[in-house]
Amino acid sequence: MGKRSRQRQRNQSAAGRDDRDKAGWGAGYADIIKENKLFEHYYKELGLVPDGEFEQFMEAMREPLPATIRITGYKSHAKEILHCLKEKYFKDILELEFEGQKIEAPQPLSWYPDEQAWHTNMSRKIIRKSPLLEKFHQFLVSETESGNISRQEAVSMIPPLLLKIESHHKILDMCAAPGSKTAQLIEMLHADMEVPFPEGFVIANDVDNKRCYLLVHQAKRLNSPCIMVVNHDASCIPTLKIDVEGKKDILFYDRILCDVPCSGDGTMRKNIDVWKKWTTSNSLHLHGLQLRIAVRGVEQLAVGGRMVYSTCSLNPIEDEAVIAALLEKSEGALELADSSADLPGLKWMPGVTSWKLMTKEGQWFSDWSEVPSSRHTQIRPTMFPPKDPEKLASMHLERCMRILPHHQNTGGFFVAVLVKKAPMPWNKRYPKLRKEASSLSAAQSGDSPAASTPADTTPDLPESAAEEAEVEGPEGKIDGEAEEEAPKGAAVAQESTAKQDGVCGPPASKKMRLFGYKEDPFVFLTEDDPVFTTIQSFYDLSPNFPKLNVLTRTHEGKKRHLYMVSKELRNVLLNNSERMKVINTGVKVWSRNSDGEEFGCAFRLAQEGIYTLQPYIRSRIIRVSVEDIKVLLTQENPFLSKLEDDAHAQAKKLVMGSIVLKYIPNPNTPAEPQCPIQLCGWRGKTSIRAFVPRNERFHYLRMLGVEVFRDKQGLGQKLKDEGKEEVAKDAEEEVEAVENEAELDSENGDENGSSQPKVDSGSQGTSS
User: Fold this and answer.
1) Which residues are catalytic?
2) pTM
3) Residues 6-27: pLDDT tens digits?
4) 177 labelled as ligand-binding?
5) CA 683 to centroid of chain Cα atoms
6) 162/143 same-domain check
7) Does the residue 317 lie in any domain?
8) 762 annotated as belonging to a binding site for a ligand
9) 206 assigned ligand-binding residue
10) What GO biological process, any one, is recorded here (predicted)?
11) Given 658, 693, 708, which residue is the final one in a domain?
12) Which domain holds residue 143?
């Protein structure tokens, strides 16, 4: 497409945006009236809102949701970003007005630790349209892309906090897309930046194949080797196997986030179309699915583990009813944890112990016995509170937490924390591996209880039947059956071959070709792979470098990119290739560079994986100062002589090729950044350059006190440092780069992700 066409397309989309913004909050929803009589009648009757507060509740629901941002907590840069926000941007916002509305300065969320989350009464429209907030808006966009800030609704930050994540936990996020909560889980795993490979990991699942790629986009910003994105129906997500001291074992998770699909009536402040679409039948249709997902979650939870169940709905049918059904059928294996002291400062309402059910025609039912048989398929017994007062009291449903919008100017939300005390009653023993399940094959091939049980009675399955239900092979047989029929020697040979090759191929074709995209295989390298010969000597890798954790995405031909995963995720990948559809895992650490072969190594370092890889690299490192980093990030190809004497002397000792540029903070100079910075670079014949993605480049410049922003026309970038101004050279390409960054890459890592972005070549001379 030519430049004129691109410009015309941009002008049209900008005009469209302006029209939506002129229509008021909601971007195109101006014609939707924020009224729903059925909604008001239903929630008034249920009495979830305290006496005398219902009008405030409804007024809050009609107001736009305030903007909230969260600073990523696992990076050591978090404090620097917070300092930058407070000193540079929040001070400018004081006493501002926009269209007659006074803009309040952002305030930290009182219940979020370490001032890492902030909110303001500014809506997205104000932030985007006010000229006075242009720099702040660009800061948010850029820092979000580089993974240092997440624009996330306040209430959605709550579930990961209640999980109490530690670095060794194995975590499952059952319904993870779009990924803001998943990002929090990853941050918590990496709380200690000194540990490149935490023992724990996050498996993030979503049923929607396309949304999985959105999830990948979110996770990739955090550059973690401990995240895997998979694509399954959460209600029947497969049981995974792992090797434990040479023996096969079932993978049970220490923490599970069960943020289920819901009617979303707590999101009316941002999803305006919920006002006209809301009806009580939404909850009735979703209850069964929500319960099935929650049941599957607790089955996979380790004894002693925690599962957080959450919805962005206020409806008890989707909330307390699901929890009560789960607790009743667990027969004491689960209990609701008291989380009242975990988030001091958060205002919430305790869960309710009685509720009624209403059809969309306005008919009420208080008990299952009142429901006519004609409605038994739509309304189920688990939707009503337990009848036995003693059993109801023992459930402690008041420990559930419901967040109402008018209490702290948030969205509506529900959250409950479950602790597993014993195996589930339909799993009195831990489930055995499939090869031991052949004795149960007769039951499976007949009228399987798992196949015929209605959604809401799934927990009544006999021992291990639930496990069998989800491991059916392509022909409807369980894995154990298939193994029994095949000669034992062949099965062993096949297994040893897979282990030897270190390959986790794509899942079984019959299952997965029906939807989604075909994924490349995950091929682990062996310790004696020829690739390592030059890499080992060129970068002088330490002896404890985990070569077995390195993988590529191709069986044949030259390896283009090398990725790393933690040894725990490697264990999961190698033992579950046939039962798991993996969309993405690993962080890119090296990329092939054809020019590099003549300098001693065909692979250059990738910025995405530098913090993971650098602890193992013992050569090719140049210690740089703040001034050196400014030069490297604002000039395209500066001469070596542009560096300060110390860095210049180090660079002269190195041959041409890929390098690490390392800044170590000095506690005696508090004006400089107090966090380590590591950049990938290239030492040329007479010049040096940094290979850093565009938004990450701007992030580091801001931390060093260099102001980076776009001019009013949106054409080009400006860099300001102590009064000097340099305007970016190629404005057209800059704007295109901004637009293209939002596109998702289906491969594991963007091929151009570490290439040199054209930030500013200014008037500096360049040299090859």
Assistant:
1) 312
2) 0.80
3) 555 555 544 444 443 333 333 4
4) yes
5) 35
6) no
7) yes
8) no
9) yes
10) tRNA methylation
11) 708
12) 67-151
